[in-house]
Amino acid sequence: MTSTLVRRHPPLAARTWAADPRTRARDWSEIQERMLVPLYEAVHERLGVGRGTRLLGLGCGSGLALLMAAGRGADVTGVEPDSPERLSLARERLAAGADGRSGGGVTRLEERIPARTDAYTVVTALEPVGCRTGDTGTLVARLREAAPLAERGAAVVLAGWGPPERCATTAVLRTAAGADGPSRSPEGWRQAGRDDLEDVARRAGLVPDGSGRVSCPFGYAGTDSAVRGLWSTGLFDAAAAATDRTQVDKELREALHPYVRADGTVWMPNVFRYLVARTR
Question: In Å, how far from its chain's centre is CA 9?
Fold first, then answer.
């Protein structure tokens, strides 16, 4: 897959924050999720995902990473407890991909982690942690539930944002906290910490076993597409609930302005980090 991620999407005439959960899930699937393709590719290559891999994807979203793993021949299971709309899209995507898959394995998509007779060999949590207050605690609980279902020594991969100075999108995400101040909501955005992934692994009882960094630029066809994609992450919801959605939308557009290129596209270089840990 290519890492050139600019695509054309029809603009919404107004209220581009798209409160409807089905629209938001579709925006995630069609605009935002593909920004993480370089991360997915790097993780799959690092772990040698392919035939014989039994992969459990926690927080699988609309299933793009699972589709890529299945395309390499892996047996994939995805769990998405937070968004039935994204899970529905994942089922559509994996079902459509199965017809053209060469040697792909079994696919399962559930709201909760399913048990199996043969243990998982790889567990991934590839939705980046470290930008939402409380997200690390949620992930720790899910990893503790998943670890007993994996082989001893199985790889568990966690993903997070890289250093703020290497992530242009950090400046835009600060809109969720308010101008140069604390979060507008105790459940809102927070800046990612340097040791977020190691802290999650330690609390989940995992053993760190290497890490890597991946360039994941966020590229959009225009400001409307960028706003829709960023709203679909859910990172701005707490700010909108605490203040006013229209105002947050306006501030988001203003924050994107420095990243709009002469041709109208939006381009924000970012670096993401992943941690490989092992089950005990």
Answer: 20
Q: How far apart are CA 183 and CA 114, in angstroms?
A: 36
pTM: 0.89
- Which domains are seen in the chain, by residue range? 21-173+188-218+270-278 (3.40.50.150)
Q: What tens digit of pLDDT does each residue of 170-223 get? A: 999 988 876 444 445 555 678 888 899 999 999 999 999 999 999 999 999 999
Integer CA distances (angstroms), 185 to 80, 173, 174, 240, 241, in order: 25, 14, 13, 9, 8
pLDDT tens per residue, range 134-162: 889 999 999 999 999 999 999 999 999 99
Beta bridge partners of 271: 215
